[in-house]
Each structure stands twice: as C-alpha cells, then as structure tokens.
Design goal:
This protein is mostly helical. It has one domain. Helices cover 47% and strands 9% of the residues. It has four helices and two strands. It has a two-stranded parallel ribbon. Helix 1 crosses helix 4. The longest helix is centred in the last third of the chain and has 13 residues.
Length: 91
C-alpha cells in the first residue's frame, strides 16, 4: 500500500524549484531554502510515497502569475494525482 504525503503550496514550490528548474545546483543556492528544496526531492522519488496535493493548493497555484513557475506547479499537481483521486483512510 502506498504512502501519501500531503503537500502545501510552499512545499510544492520547493519541490518544483529543486527538480523542475534546469541546472538547479543546491551548492549555488543563495536563497537560504536549499535544505527545504533538497528535502522534498526524496518524497517525489521514493517509490511507495505519493504526493497528495489538496484542492486549496490548486486554487493558490492559479493565483501565481502566468509563466514558468505556475506551469511547472500545474504539471506537478496533475502528474501526482487526478481530480477524482482521494487517498483512502483507515479506521
């Protein structure tokens, strides 16, 4: 059974910046967010962990000005789960 990790809009941005920006090098990242960006990468790559992007994050993404960041975040949210998908809960 896969593991689901819910991500907020900040975590999604860290992930997109870490794996979605061509040529990203954490050693040259002067934003102070390199650790956060690197920390999100294994969640994406881990075989049994799927990201769950709550609907509010999709709403927040729509407020990002058109361009590369918004396009990358949209691709990531649609890649990770479809709108009819909801993680199963155990009781």
């Amino acid at each position: 059974m896969p593991i689901y990790a819910a991500v907020d809009s900040n975590a999604l941005t860290y992930l997109v910046n870490a794996i979605g920006v061509e040529g990203y090098d954490p050693a040259r990242d002067t934003s102070g967010l390199a650790d956060e960006r690197i920390a999100m990468s294994p969640l994406f790559m881990y075989r049994d962990c799927r990201l769950w992007v709550p609907p509010i994050v999709r709403t927040e993404t729509a407020h990002i000005p058109p361009g590369g960041l918004r396009d990358a975040q949209n691709r990531m949210t649609w890649y990770q789960h479809m709108p009819w998908f909801r993680p199963q809960t155990t009781r």
